[in-house]
Amino acid sequence: VYDGSHFSLPFVQEEESEEEPKLKYERLSNGVTEILQKDAASCMTVHDKFLALGTHYGKVYLLDVQGNITQKFDVSPVKINQISLDESGEHMGVCSEDGKVQVFGLYSGEEFHETFDCPIKIIAVHPHFVRSSCKQFVTGGKKLLLFERSWMNRWKSVVLHEGEGNIRSVKWRGHLIAWANNMGVKIFDIISKQRITNVPRDDISLRPDMYPCSLCWKDNVTLIIGWGTSVKVICSVKERHASEMRDLPSRYVEIVSQFETEFYVSGLAPLCDQLVVLSYVKEISEKTEREYCARPRLDIIQPLSETCEEISSDALTVRGFQENECRDYHLEYSEGESLFYIVSPRDVVVAKERDQDDHIDWLLEKKKYEEALMAAEISQKNIKRHKILDIGLAYINHLVERGDYDIAARKCQKILGKNAALWEYEVYKFKEIGQLKAISPYLPRGDPVLKPLIYEMILHEFLESDYEGFATLIREWPGDLYNNSVIVQAVRDHLKKDSQNKTLLKTLAELYTYDKNYGNALEIYLTLRHKDVFQLIHKHNLFSSIKDKIVLLMDFDSEYLHKLFKRDHHKGQRYHEKQISLYAEYDRPNLLPFLRDSTHCPLEKALEICQQRNFVEETVYLLSRMGNSRSALKMIMEELHDVDKAIEFAKEQDDGELWEDLILYSIDKPPFITGLLNNIGTHVDPILLIHRIKEGMEIPNLRDSLVKILQDYNLQILLREGCKKILVADSLSLLKKMHRTQMKGVLVDEENICESCLSPILPSDAAKPFSVVVFHCRHMFHKECLPMPSMNSAAQFCNICSAKNRGPGSAILEMKK
Fold this sequence. Notes:
One of its GO terms (biological process) is cellular response to starvation. Helices cover 36% and strands 24% of the residues. By secondary structure, the chain is α+β, with helices and mostly antiparallel strands. The strands form 9 sheets. Strands 1-28-27-24-23 form a 5-stranded antiparallel β-sheet, with no helix packed on it. A 4-stranded antiparallel β-sheet has the order 2-31-30-29, with helices on one face. The longest helix is centred in the C-terminal third of the chain and has 42 residues.
């Protein structure tokens, strides 16, 4: 906020809001400060290249966009009421309170000068005044006059309007002039010389000289009106249809949006599809209960049909706001750059849309560092005041201050990148707060590589408090990151206090291995009975060192091959033949699973070993796997005497000859017959078995077995009937669908051809009669191109489909004309 001579941000949010401001503000200083110390601003107009400021002492200053004075004109001893510039910025019109009007070229000399007998409140030069055909301007006091230079270089004037009080506002855009008097707003078409609308003033209780009308053109056909607390958007100055003309103007306007504001409108400007509104505010003092002038507001508003939505609202602490009236404020804007100038007697403030740097400023102020970092990365080519690295470092510091050490450490990877110096600086910061462990997983291990001291410092931290974490780092970090001998000595010192700690011993063995001290490493692994000893022996060819330790190695890893096979069936395939003997000798329960899962064991060798040891189940499996199913079944029946297993085996093989062998073997064994009767029904016709049963043979549970056979038979019948119903229903449904499809019409147009003569199916002369045959297969023929049907059958078939053995078209569509 700034007030008087103090300066900072010249706006105040009404209350703390989580929404980001839409605009930023800056005082127009330099020459403007000098001017307003002795004079007061009365009006201003804006061009893309410069500014023109009028004062109460009758001066007009041309300023650059920083507020520096480039040119000064002494126009009048009294207040300048309005300044107007053409689009080129080469011609300027000025009017003052003493009735003076001047229109002149900034680079070509004076064009017009006259003094009227009344104050001239407004002036507007033609937007294209630089053209010889557009030497026109309007002035307004008690009447609105249009001045136009004739071909004799003489100026002639025409009264466009009078009799409704002083003209207090005017805006010229394209061929349309809009002005406001005491009664309302009018629009005049300079081409047709017609006034095309009259918008009456809503609140006639307000003095028009104290609460003047604000006008601005959004584009060539859209006028925005603000008066008192009312805002109207007049859209689409449209051409009237000839049938509606009669005595009416050729154009008309529509009010598409109208809404009330909370305060009095002092100025308007468009911002895309939104409005910028400068408002004069009066409030009631809580202490004195008297009305006073409050800070003016600059609002961004989204117009709706009958209301509006406030997008943002800022209260501006401009100099002398306590003494200002509604008429003292003006809002001017530069269309090309979306710059808005808030003009008051003692201050000129520039509002502009916030850029990406401002957005990042706001995010940092709200401590939204991650969003700020993301915004900077996305817009790194457009940001000027911020650096991604600086934002990232601020983000890390914020996370550390908040106690989110792990997140802060993780972000270091992305933010610090390959900057070794910054990495080392951050590590020392983490050391100061006792959080070296947090940053350890994210330290770079190559490109860049930090000083060895950094890694040693972290390893010592873990060694003091976390043996497992220390061991993990030793495994993960390359050994050349730190001084290996220093760490070895530190581990040995700790082992003096805890000599049996397996974690430290294993880690020391790894350190010895990296240091090529394989003897000490081997000794530790053997002491720990650790499996990594085998990898160490093979990798570094230490066989000569283990001649006297073979028994020890076998003792603590007797299940090595078994575990290897469980992990990967193919990795130790060259040992599978040996494993068969080992399983048979020492671990028979795992032999059959091994034979089932291995695809590399020699079956003949396995069969020989199993037969030697009379392993029936293993032998049965091997015989069946080798294709000798009958021998396998015979062994089950003769060796195991297990009818259920024999039946299960026959089911798995699904071989009719096996069932026949099983029946023949079981026919004189009643228990086997019972088992077969209970299980055979769904695989073999039970009659084959029942016919072979000898009369008078006692069979246990025969009745129950026969009942089960009948139940199984009934179930099969039910299943077949159910399947038949489903098939019949599906067939009928598909038949109906096919019939519906074939009954549909077939499109015949000029693109189709006769499949016989290959000429277009439709004749070029549609007036001639013709006949076309269309089969359901979509092939088409001229009727005369088809062969005559045979005497035996009146049905006609598609020649193409019949030749391809796809069956003829099932029906024929014949089209005649």
